[in-house]
Amino acid sequence: MPSLLDRLPDIARFCSLAGLIIFNSLAYYASPYRPLDDDLLRFNIGASIYLAFIYRWAASTRQMTRDFDHALVERTPIRVCERILAATGSYVVVANFAVAMAKSLASTIKELSDQGSYNTIRGTYESLSWVYHSSGRNCDTTAQQATIAGAIKEDLNDVNGNKLCGTECLRMDHGGTWDRWLKIGPTANFKSNAYCGPSLTFSSCLSGGNNDI
Predict the structure, then answer these.
(1) What's the rounded Cα separation, in Å, for the pair 213 and 208?
(2) Quick check: 180 and 118 in contact, CB under 8 A?
(3) Which of 1, 36, 80, 127 is the least buried, fewest Cβ under 10 Å from its Cβ?
């Protein structure tokens, strides 16, 4: 939904044309004094009505284009990059709860995004622990919750083969300034103090989220 400020140019154009229609109609039908030739007045009235309809149609078309572009952005896959921070000899199989965990994390991430929050939060799910925070100029995203969940699930299932062997750092971005950092690993040996942030480099990335859940 566009803001009032975004709609001001369209409103101003429409009001100007409406004023021209009213002025020319009064001059033609109501005023005994003719400031302009009758043919010219009729032309002005017709042209103003035509332009009013054209501008209204153009405004509707622009809004439809904005809505369509926004919908495309919402469905744009999320890029997830992974880096192992600490490997261990044991692992946790996540096949039975990867989808449920991805949905739970995505709900939390989307809620913080909608609030514009940079807060660091942490938690556990089954036998995994995680820490999440954001960075960048803006901390909100147009990504749908299902897209975020799908990207996390795809990393857990497809990249890690349904198991986690250590503490990992996941970098998620959706274009623009949106950067999210998810540190995740087995609770038994989770490295809660390991760095997971913008200074890290990543060699493994995937693009996912659409139709993955």
Answers:
(1) 10
(2) no
(3) 1
Pick from 2, 39, 6, 45: which is nearest to 24 by CA?
Answer: 45
DSSP string, 116-137: T----EEEEETTEEEEEEEESS
Statement: residue 122 has pLDDT above 80: yes
Report helix, strand and coil shares of the chain as percent, to nearest 5: 45, 25, 30
Which sequence spans correspond to the domains of the chain?
4-74, 77-208
Helix intervals (H) in 26-159: 38-75, 98-115, 145-154
Cα 131 from Cα 182, distance rounded (Å): 6
> What is the per-residue pLDDT across 47-94, written as a single tens digit (0 to 9) for each?
767 676 666 666 666 555 554 444 434 446 778 888 889 887 778 888
Structure confidence at residue 117 as a pLDDT band (50, 70, 90):
confident
Q: Is the distance from CB of 73 to CB of 150 less than 8 angstroms?
A: no
Q: How far apart are CA 119 and CA 132, in angstroms?
A: 8
Tens of pLDDT, residues 4-60: 555 666 667 667 767 666 776 766 666 666 555 666 666 766 776 767 666 666 666
Q: What is the largest CA-CA distance in the chain?
A: 98
Looking up tokens 């990059």 gives 81
